[in-house]
Amino acid sequence: MFKFRKTGAFVIGMVLSITVSSTSAFAADYTVLKNDSLYKIGRLFNTSVNTIKSTNHLKSNQLRTGQVVKVKAKIYKIKKGDTLYSIAKKNKVTLASLRRANNKWNDKVKPAQKLLLPAANTTAKKAAVKSSKVAPAAKTFQTSMVAQAADQAPNSSKASISYTKNELDLLARLITAEATGQPYDAMVGVGAVVVNRVQSSVWPDSISSVINQVAGGYYQFTPVKNGYIKKPASKTAIKAAKAALNGSDPSYNAMFYFDDTSTNSWLWSKPITARYGIMVFVK
């Protein structure tokens, strides 16, 4: 559970080569690190895999760590009083994608410093707005469907992401460690956060790599650090894990969760998408 982390959330690197003004697209040199792919880079900068391949004369989709690929983007010149959060909000991009685009895991900024701007995630934004406008009765109906989805078989055609039997067990053990004693929707929500990260271009692209990620010395999930994730999964947690893997998301597209005793102002500053018991879900 997230209680203490402010920064250090990601592991992708960025080397920039700025060639024109801050108001137009420019060629930037993106240095590929572990877990990156042409698809993820394309999503980050709102371009296609074919465009990246053509621009960089690539003959395949394979990337190697340390490889440099050119992308088109815009830059933002930091002004006095700016923060990463305000810059992200002003330019309608997520803080996570802004950090990733600039290999910027701390919050220190200074005037005249230049940041690469990722593409605005308009699809996610529209989905979030739609979610926030769902009537309480509709939300109740949606979350009541969680139990129905839970009994679907692992890796069925209805699964929202691919996973192995071991990854199902790993996810269920995370849910057991994080949300035992909390409402069932909270348990499914924990699983959904992992699924949401796998589907995002910002995070690693498998369940095991998302759960076990350690970036900048920070464990993304406390049970991995303290060893609680090694405890066997409960039957309810397995059911919740299957529900999340099959598309149930009572977290409403959240990327983080924490309990309401947390004093982490960074987490509390993020948009809250759902609350169940003591569990708080945010983007």
Largest sheet: 3 strands, antiparallel
What is the share of helical residues? 25-40%
- Report mean pLDDT, rounded to a whole number: 77
Strand tally is: 8
- Going by helix content, strand content and strand pairing, the class is alpha+beta
First-last Cα distance? 15 Å
Radius of gyration: 19 Å
Reading the helices and strands in chain order gives EHHEHHEHHHHHHEEHHEHEE
Biggest sheet: strand arrangement: 1-2-3
Secondary structure tally, helices = 13
Q: Stretches where pLDDT falls below 50 for ≥5 residues?
A: 3-24, 122-158
Give the strand content. 5-15%
**Dominant shape:** globular
What does this structure look like?
The strands form three sheets. Strands 1-2-3 form a three-stranded antiparallel sheet. It is globular, with a radius of gyration of 19 Å. It is built from 13 helices and eight strands. Helix 8 packs across helix 12 and helix 9 packs across helix 12. It starts with 25 loop residues before the first strand and ends with a strand. The longest helix is centred in the last third of the chain and has 16 residues. A hairpin with a 2-residue loop joins strand 7 and strand 8. The chain is 39% helix and 13% strand. With 283 residues, the protein is an alpha+beta fold.
